[in-house]
Amino acid sequence: MVTSGNLDTAVHVVAGAIGDAGGPILTTRRPDGVHQGGLWEFPGGKLEPGERPLEGLGRELAEELGITVQAARPLIRVRHAYADRAVLLDVYRVQRYTGTAVGREGQPLAWLCPAEMDEHLFPAADRPVIRALQLPDRMLITGADPARPAAFLRRLELALTTGIRLVQLRAPGLRSPAYIELARAAYECCARHGAWLLLNADPALAERLPCQGLHLTSARLRGLASRPGADGQLIGASCHDAEELSLAAALGLDYALLSPVRPTASHPGGSVLGWSRFAALVDRVNLPVYALGGLGEADLPAAWKAGAQGIAAIRGLWPTADPAAAADSARDLAHS
């Protein structure tokens, strides 16, 4: 990874991840005989002197593919040092464009679903980009009522109907037998909606339970010497500073949460990062990072602008009331 100290020597490149949300993404094959030749990549190229990344993206995609970018947002920034050069890669999620993409320079094109991308067929700098494309832009952290499983699962079901596809099961006060039972029920609920379940639990316990991955507290993260979990699992961690983010990246984790961005109800007087500090910390790691702390869906554009993968939230995404109880109250009012 290239540090900020040698950023001036890095080749500044911009690339576009083109495709509908959740659908296949356009990739192109690099010519043989050039740097990283023969590998697949996300289309783009070097910025010209004085050119802004979005301007360069529009120019490169028009030249390479014959399309006109109409809307794009930041996806991830990657710094990487190859043996012969360093690159600074700004990647944008192209949300809207006109024209039909063709290889105007004779390059082969392929539309690939992120889940099916083989990172070994891409340059190393593109591997964090693949992970960012595979991850949703919202992570739900479960909230109240884990000790009341029926009400808890009704709230989870309601949240999943809004399109949530990544859930972190957090129930710190629950003893092991109850957590195991709740985790199994939550997994079945998530599976019905095509969502991934991450367990915020002791790694040894999580190995015994059905899930797509493991979420580490910052304390567990600091105690690790190697990446935990089984092959193929999604592993991430809660971070609060540059040291923890660097450790998460060094261990090869798939994502991180960085908090608190804003004051929260649980820590109303605590210190906060704010978007500027959040952006500065995220800019140091080649890792998808979710913004956490006092945020909701309305904060997604600000999070993307600051370099985040998206937002993670409890109160901002967890239903505030048990839907069954709310329905009972509505019926009582109607008959009063």
**Number of discrete helical segments:** 10
Helical fraction equals 25-40%
Overall outline: globular
* CATH fold-level label of the largest domain: TIM Barrel
Structural class from helices and strands? Answer: alpha/beta
Low-confidence stretches: 1-5, 328-336
- What number is the mean pLDDT? 91
Descriptors for this entry?
336 residues, alpha/beta, Nucleoside Triphosphate Pyrophosphohydrolase, TIM Barrel, 2 domains, eight-stranded parallel β-barrel, 10 helices, globular, disordered N terminus
Overview of the structural elements:
The chain folds into two domains: 4-128, Nucleoside Triphosphate Pyrophosphohydrolase, CATH 3.90.79; 138-313, TIM Barrel (Alpha-Beta Barrel), CATH 3.20.20.70. The longest helix is centred in the middle third of the chain and has 17 residues, at 176-192. The chain contains ten helices and 15 strands. With 336 residues, the protein is an alpha/beta fold. The termini are far apart. Helix 5 (203-206) links the parallel strand 10 (196-199) and strand 11.
